[in-house]
Amino acid sequence: MLKHLFTLIWNRKRANALLIVEIFLAFVVLFVVGSLLVYRWQNYRAPLGFAYEQVWEVSLDPGVQPKAERYATQQQIIQRIKSLSGVRAVTRTASNTPFTNSHSQSDVGRPGEKGFRPTSNVYYLDDAAADVLQVPLEEGRWFDRRDDGAPVAVISHDLKELLFPHETAVGKLVEADGNRRVVGVAAAYRADGDFANPKPATFLRNGVQDTVFDHLRTLLVRVQPGAGGALEKQMSADIRAIGPGWSSNITPLSESRDKQMKTVLTPLVALVITCVFLIVNVALGLFGVLWQTINQRRSEIGLRRAIGASAGGISGQIVGEILVVATFGLALGLLAAAQFPLLGVLGVRVGVYLTAMALAAGLVYLLTVVCALYPSRLAAGIQPAVALREE
Amino acid sequence: MQTSAAPVLQLTDIEKIYQTKTIETVALHRINLTIGRGEFVSIMGPSGCGKSTLLSLMGLLDEPTHGTVAVDGRPVQSYSDKELAGLRNLKIGFVFQSYHLINDLAVLDNVELPLLYRPGLGSKERRQRALAALDKVGLSARTNHFPSQLSGGQRQRVAIARALAGAPEIILADEPTGNLDSVMGEEIMDLLLGLNREHGTTIVMVTHDEQQALKTQRLIRLFDGSQVG
């Protein structure tokens, strides 16, 4: 019967061409949107690599204070903030804090080795970052006072896999803002947020001799659960009191995260809504064409009933036919979809494309079956005597 | 080939009434009819007298409003849709005035069609049977043609081959020569007579042609839904 259906659809390919094109386009759209959704979903499910709850970002603006005095003022501010009840830890960092889409990147490699040097996000942090961001490590440790006088770094798992694929990274040297010894490997660090792809990350320790203020003017502060407006107000007041002319902007990381999620989700939701409209149109189109086809084929269906097809057999045949049509459309769609990973069109992992292909194909099949159910029941209701009456 | 006395089809007290909200049309009234195995019976009557309706009931394509239809002595009222479909497929072959070939299928695929609904039949056997049926009607050379590439007579021969492919005991033909010129009509009639004589196939044929009807073993006349002769 399957061969018969293929023969029938192939011989009616002109009549079915529009349906095939419609299914092809629906598949391609579903595949592209599906790829983006699967990509975002897989990223969302992956660990962020740090704890953002109860962490505040404090951006400091020294105003017109002379540059030479800024570092000292900042140190006073840090000490003052540390002493506030409700504050657990403070770390000093650059502006590329989590969820801000601000990046500082550098090519990181093994010293003395030329060739492949992967680009890595670089984060300047100090020892307290271990308490503030609570980055889980899969190897080694976070930097601390034992590293005074020796430039050290913690690298992310992704960077470790690129630089030291089959060996331990701890104890090895990496070239990032000078040569630094790796003391730990972080499982992940996705400062670009829940939906972003993991990227290589390098954490560089602010040395005690690092007294420049300008590129490390941001503080990350871990506060106690329940800390709120009063602490924030106190912190702002203290900053203004210590540094006349200084101002600050305090934002909880959870707020930045929500804002960033909205930025990512809004176009995605718009895309999904557009996609749903398209799919509804395709479904209505399929339904309409099938309904019309059944009416045009009453005589043929009656004939099939007369020569031995049961009502269930006819129903199954109609569903089978639309599945064969869908298969033709999908075959073309899969050919087009296969170009995406080959050409790296969306820049996502191959597994994402494959998952999206399977999901889109499954959805197209489901859609065609749902659209065929009612027309197939109509067809099954055609009495065999129709064959004798209709021309 | 001898006609056996055992009835292959038996219609008892058949009435068929088509009912709409406002009109009730009696298509058949108190028909009692027995078709013996190997008989060639023709049915005649003016247009609208119920010939095709009678053929539909004989072919298990429709249900009577009253009365019983029995095949090989067994009433079929209690049969499920699936059982009736199976019975039609095994026992009955249909030939229609307007051929009812599927234009998008080649001749061979059209002839194979009834065999697709027969469980347990492999594609090779289906093909062999279809080829044999086409050979019987003299169309072996047209297997890959499409119906639109054939003359009316050839199309009707394809339809007969389709009816024969399943080796049915009964062929029900509804004005099989109605759309053909006299020469082609004669060809088809000779084919049906040959099938009846040589293979013992029971044939019931609706016709308007008195000459053709006289060539059959028995003539049933209908008028206004009743049997008049």
From TrEMBL, chain A:
Location of the MacB-like periplasmic core domain: 39-228
InterPro entries, alphabetized: ABC3_permease_C, MacB_PCD, Macrolide_Exporter_MacB
Principal place of residence: membrane
Keywords recorded for this protein, A-Z: Cell membrane, Membrane, Transmembrane, Transmembrane helix
GO MF annotation: an example: transmembrane transporter activity
Bilayer-crossing regions: 20-41, 268-291, 312-338, 350-374
Topology of this chain in the membrane: Multi-pass membrane protein
One Pfam family recorded for the sequence: FtsX
Annotated localization: Cell membrane
Location of the ABC3 transporter permease C-terminal domain: 276-384
Any single GO CC term annotated in Swiss-Prot or TrEMBL for this entry: plasma membrane
Family from the record: Belongs to the ABC-4 integral membrane protein family.
Name assigned to this protein: FtsX-like permease family protein
Source organism per UniProt: Hymenobacter nivis
